[in-house]
Write a structure and sequence with these properties.
alpha+beta; 419 residues; 11 strands; 29% helix
């Protein structure tokens, strides 16, 4: 039996074996306490060292970034001219950056050729000028210095950028804009006017009315459930809405009296986007929720990076007016993460920072200059739900053909995403 002064090793499972169950339990408890004490002493020792040398804390935070699936995201290696398809996973911003670098390199090479021609011409005029040694030194390319030491797991990640970035709608590929001219119009987008309806014989009247508070300038028209009433198709409803100057039609679908899908029809002739819905929560069920007002909200589109993601982001952009009313302080966020689009609506307020709160930090983990004493408070208004893109039709409904269809095999590789 172990003595009272015995300190079990934090690495060994059991220093010895015993047949007594209670002694094993007691030894396990002692070993767990010793391991916790060792971790605590190590944590306090590291804190004392980092207080003396703050650079150690910065290096530790930079080195210990969690290596998530978003940071390990892989992209399709294709040419920039063929990277406009909806079925490829390619970072549009990276392709644009590569194109600019190639153009700059070509311009620099052409400039060097011109300078060499000028120098050779001056050499013919005056052969007594000795510039050969300097020219040779300029031509010698310095070899890039390799970093000493092994690369960390974070540096080995294939995605060098942050997992959450604001969507830049100016990076739309030209081929994608030519493919969907109605969504990528060069003119300023019109003020949206949306018709919201449900599937036939639906019971989601309350949920559809909530969508009218989420999308400005929208109206809900229920589809008739009368046994002798005419059941209009989505194509007929779209034609009806187009004649009355509507810009989009939203169809809310249900299963077992719960929202399970939502369709967006871009008028007058498509395309039509099909999303599945999960985790629908009304605003009144949220703790500490607020009540929305009629002010036009701001819109935030996060992390739409592929051509398919930019197409989806442009669809949501057409659902909201281009000029929000800032006095309402309402914002609608559409955050894409691992091909799931999280929709949230908040009311924000800027207030003074409390003594117990930290300052606002940027993506690099450092405090943002100029807002040291300011904090932003959020109050969720609802509703909240999660969407996932399933299909894009060329026109209206399935018979018009498909531009893109989700398939189960797309998620076989967990580090590859479509949006």
């Amino acid at each position: 039996m172990a003595s009272k002064k015995f300190q079990p090793s934090p690495k060994a499972s059991l220093p010895f074996k015993t047949a007594n169950k209670y002694k094993r339990q007691d030894l396990h408890v002692k070993q767990k306490k010793a391991r916790e004490h060792t971790r605590r002493d190590e944590r306090f020792r590291r804190r004392r060292e980092e207080d003396k040398e703050p650079s150690l804390r910065e290096d530790r935070i930079k080195r210990n970034v969690p290596l998530t699936l978003d940071r390990k995201r892989v992209w399709d290696e294709i040419d920039r001219d063929t990277g406009d398809g909806l079925g490829v996973s390619v970072d549009v911003e990276r392709l644009k950056r590569r194109k600019l670098e190639e153009e700059e390199a070509a311009a620099a090479a052409q400039l060097d050729v011109d300078q060499e021609e000028v120098i050779s011409g001056s050499d013919d005029q005056d052969s007594m000028i000795d510039f050969g040694s300097g020219d040779e030194e300029d031509k010698v390319k310095k070899k890039p210095q390799r970093r000493q030491g092994p690369r960390t797991a974070t540096e080995r990640a294939t995605s060098p950028v942050h997992s959450t970035t604001s969507t830049n709608l100016d990076l739309t590929p030209e081929a994608l804009a030519a493919r969907f001219p109605s969504l990528f119009s060069m003119e300023s987008p019109p003020i949206p006017k949306i018709l919201i309806t449900t599937s036939i014989n639906s019971t989601l009247h309350n949920e559809a009315r909530l969508l009218t508070t989420l999308f400005p300038h929208s109206v809900y028209i229920p589809r008739s459930a009368h046994r002798y009433g005419h059941k209009f198709s989505v194509r007929e409803i779209s034609s009806f809405a187009t004649n009355r100057k509507y810009t989009a039609v939203i169809v809310l679908k249900e299963d077992q009296k719960r929202p399970t899908g939502i369709d967006f029809v871009h008028l007058p002739s498509g395309p039509m986007f099909h999303f599945s819905i999960s985790n629908w929560v009304e605003g009144k069920r949220l703790p500490g929720h607020g009540n929305p007002t009629n002010h036009l909200p701001e819109i935030i589109l996060n992390n739409f990076r592929t051509p398919l993601g930019l197409l989806t982001a442009h669809l949501f952009r057409t659902m909201f007016p281009p000029q929000p009313e800032f006095q309402g302080r309402q914002v609608v966020t559409l955050h894409n993460q691992r091909d799931y689009i999280f929709l949230r609506r908040h009311r924000y307020v800027f207030r003074e920072k409390r003594a117990t709160e930290k300052s606002v930090v940027g993506p690099d983990g450092k405090e943002v200059k100029g807002v040291e004493g300011i904090r932003a408070g959020l109050q969720e208004l609802g509703p909240r739900f999660t969407m996932k893109l399933r299909r894009i039709d060329k026109g209206i409904q399935h018979g018009s053909g498909q531009e893109w269809v989700w398939r189960g095999g797309m998620e076989k590789q967990r580090t590859k995403f479509q949006l």
